[in-house]
Structures are given as C-alpha cells and as structure tokens.
Amino acid sequence: MSVAEPKRASLVNFRNVAISALVVTALLQLLGGMGLFNQYYLHILAIIGMNIILVVSLNLVNGYLGEFALGHAGFMAVGAYTAALIAMNLQLPTALRLPLSLAGGVAAAGLIGYLVGLVTFKTVGDYLAITTLGFNMIIVNAIQNIDYLGGPRGLTGIPKGTDLITVAACVVLTYWILRNLVHSGYGRMWLSIRENAIASGLIGVNVNRVKNVAFTVAAAFAGLAGGLWAQYQQFITPRSFDYLKTTEILVMLYLGGMGSLSGSILGVVFYTVTMELLRNVLGMISPQLADLRMLLSPLILVVIMLTRQYGLMGNREWRWLQPKREESPVGTGA
Amino acid sequence: MLDTVIQQLLNAAQLGAVYALIALGYTMVYGTIRLINFAHGDIFMLGGYIGFLLVTAVSGMPLVVMMPLAMLLTALVGMLIERVAYRRLRNAQRMSLVITALGVGIFLENLVRLLVGPQARQLPAQLPNGVVELFNGVVVTEDKILIIFISLALMVILWLFVHRTLMGTAMRAVADNKDAVQLMGINLNMVIAVTFAIGSALAAAGGIFFGQAYSIDPYMGIDLGWKAFIAAVIGGIGSIEGAVLGSFLLAGVEVLTVAYLSSNMKNGIAFGLLILLLLLRPNGIMGRPELKKV
Question: What is the pTM assigned to this prediction?
Fold first, then answer.
C-alpha cells in the first residue's frame, strides 16, 4: 500500500527536455561545422524549428481560441521584412544584430496583428477566415508594390544571422511562453470563448479584447519565425508568404491536432519528415517519381482527416511538456 | 472616350460572367452543407482542362458538343469528390472538412500539373470572332458577346431550376434546415450530390470560357477561385442572385483598377473591397443574417 507515499517527480519534465534539446542542437551544429554531421539534416532541423514556432502560435488562435484564421503567413512576412531591413540597413554590431532585428520583427508583426485584429474580430466564423485571408493577400500585395522592399523580386543579401542554435532557443522560448499563457488564468478566457463566446461575455470576459490579445501574440510569434527565416535563407520574396504558406502552416497544425501544443510539434515533425522522406525515397527509385510527392502529400492529408478528424494528437498533450499540476486543477483545460 | 468605356464595361462583363459561373458553385455548396469548398476553384481549372483535352483528342469537335460533354464529366468528378472525401465528414467538426477540401484542391492542381504539364495553354478559339458594330464606330467582338450571353443563359436556367422544379425546392429546403428535410422524406445525399454536380458543371463552363478568352494553367484555380469566392461573399454567400451581382461588381472594380490605376494593385483592391463590405454588411449584399439561438 503506497497510498501515502508521495510520487517521485519524473526527470522527464519541460525544463530537462528543453535543456537537452538545446544541448543536442548545439552539439549537432558543432559536429556539422566540423563536417561530421550532414548539413542537410541540420537544414531539416532548422526548418522544423521555424515551422514549430509558426504552427504553435497559430494554434493559439485556431486551436485555443477556436477561430479559423487564414492569414498567418502575412504576419510572417511583416516580421521577415522588418528583421531583414534592420539587419541590412542599421550598422549594428554583430552581437546585437540578430536579437535587435528579431525584436523589431516581433514588434512590427505584433502591431500589425493588433491592428488587423481590431478589424477582423468584428466578424466571426467563415467571414473571419476570409477577412484574415484578405489581409494576408493585402500584405503580400502591398510588399509587391513597394520598390523599397524590392517589389516582386524580394530582398537579397540579408546577412546570415540564424543558425540551428538560435532556432532551437527561439522554439524553446516560444513554446514556454505559449504553454504558460494557455495555462494561465488569462488563457482560460480563450478556452471559455472557444466553448461559448456569448456565455463568456455574460460572465464578464471582454470577448473582443481577449480575442485580440491572442491574435496579437500569435502574429508576434509569426513575426519571430519570419525574422529567423529571413536571416536563415538570406533572401526573401513576397510570394513565399502567400496563401500557399498559410495553407502549409494550417495543414501541419490540423495534422497535429488543434488545441494541443505538443500535437503541433508532432504535426510539424511528421509533415516535414514525411515530405523529405518521400522526396528522397521516390527520387532514389526514379527521378520522375519524385514528382509523385506532390500528389501523395495532399492525399496523406485527406486520409488523415478522414480517419483521424481531430489530428494525430486530438487535444491531448504530452504530460512531460505540461506545467506542474496544481493542488486542485482548474478544469481539464484543453 | 465612349468607345473605351464600352470596351472596359464589356471586359468587366466577360470576367464577371466567368466569376459568376464559379461563384454559383461556391454559394450553392455553402448553402447546402455550410462548407467553403476550397477545391471548387480547382474544379473550375479541371473543367477547362477537360475541355482542352477533349478538343485535342478529337480535333474538330465543335463547341456545342465539347462544352456539354466537359460539363458532364466535371460534374461527375465533383460528385465523386463529394462522395469520397466530404460525405464521411459531413457531421464532423467543420474544420476537418475545410482542411479536406484544401487537400483535395492541392491534389487536383498537382495531378493536372503532372499529367498535362505546368505551362499555360490556350483552348483553340471555337467561338466566332468577327466584330459587330454596335453604333457609329463602336465595335465589339462576337466571342465576348457570346460568352456573356451563354453565361447569363446558364444562370437563368439555374435560377429556373432552383425555383421552379421539385429538386430545386428540395435544395432550398436543405439550405434552410438540413435536419427537418430528412424527416420530410427527402434524400439528403441525393440533393447534395446534385448540388455538387450542378456547381461543378457551371464551373467547367467557366473554365472553358476562361480558356477561350485568356489561357489555362494548373494553378489558375487558386487565384480565380478566391476571386469568385470573394464575389460570392460580397453578394451574400448562399444566395444565387447575390453571387451573380457580387461577381459583376468585383469584375467591374478589378477592370477599373487595371485600367486606371495599376494591374499590380488588382488583388489588394479586391480584398480591400471585401473587407470593407464585410464590415459594413457582415452578411453580404443579398445575404440574410443568420439567426442564432443562445
């Protein structure tokens, strides 16, 4: 009878996972630099990391708030262009360039997100989806028409600032902030709006304001991903932030499961790795077959939706990434 | 001066007719199963390609044979998609359905790209393209007039079908209340299948006209599909008259933007108009506000 015996805290908790993830990526980066680890794998890891930031932040709006926003790539574009301009034009010391440009990207994307949210949340449901998509198109279209931003040709010659360690640090930071937000008292308001907006309003939740906070935070983190992306790729074009990018983010989100942060990680890893595997395996059999990937990826998506309509994780979480349980847990959360 | 204005109006009418043919499918599907059918733009593209393949396979196939045949084939594809991909998710949470539609759309785009190639193609001109003199010196080409008139005729036929036949009544009933309709002995699956068939057939007609007037490529459904969807929303999604009205309005704004501002600003203006309109009239011009019981 070990009823009274207190349960030993597991070593697999968020802090330890985060630290080991950072150490492992630092090691891989080092090995890659010495030529002992395939650069291609490092590249895949960096892409996965940036996609995790995008998907986890969109999850805040589409999963936890329960709205259907379709414009995430637009905010990524704002972050990417702002960060690129700061990195290229301000004569900053190298050590400050990356943090300041990223901060600029986050701030600009957050600001635009806030302004867009003011307008967008006057609508709900499908109309909200269309309005956010509209803003995505308008942002991309505006960039295409501004010569200073390179117009349709985009910006080239952005200094390389992002490496795998930066990405990993940003992923850990993003995940930590969003996880704590979602489990905070404030985060409960998002969940309550998702379950019933009218009832939430009746118990004193300022629905539009709380919604807009979620939207602003999500946009700001999309800006972070954009800033990282700009300084990783070293060139950006408006086309890479259009509707197709938004769709890709959505697909990874719904693949993993809405309202599950760990599901978002799983979705991104599953999607990215599957795509790369398909490219390599099919390419090995025959170069023509590699094109079949374009058919298989949407098919996989449809099949997953038909068989597991709540995504891979549903709204469950990996316990070891969750905050510590309180004495009396408030509801079941997500 | 007058000549340019009339030419621009006709250009707008031609583009608006194509938008309307696509928008009708969006609006009808949304009316019956409340789904934004993201794959609909790609069905429009597919219709254009089916027409193209028919003409290339049997050279000299006249338009009067090719167009109904292509519309029929595309209607079958639309019904197939509904049967295979959408029906199982009809009562699931709506986002799974939307994501499935997105997946189907990307699948169609890439399928056509792999089978026919990514390059843009032109349907062989099959409409008479002589010129007609309207009045002193103002001339228009016959194909433009024909495209506008055939499209309008199709819309009138659709309106008559929806308002004057038993099946059309059933479709309106489904749009009104899906649950009560089943208690009245109406075969819901049948009605929805017919809705998809009609929507796809109209989109195919739009695709063929678009291929005649401009050109077709595997990804045209994204851009055109979104535009038509905006048109449907502007008009009030779920309303047939609204979709037609919204299409001509959007086409007018676009043609004016290209003519007097810049062609690069076309999309920005279109979406700006959409957002403005949604803020002023959240249910579109002709849409009925959705009543929600608390």
Answer: 0.84
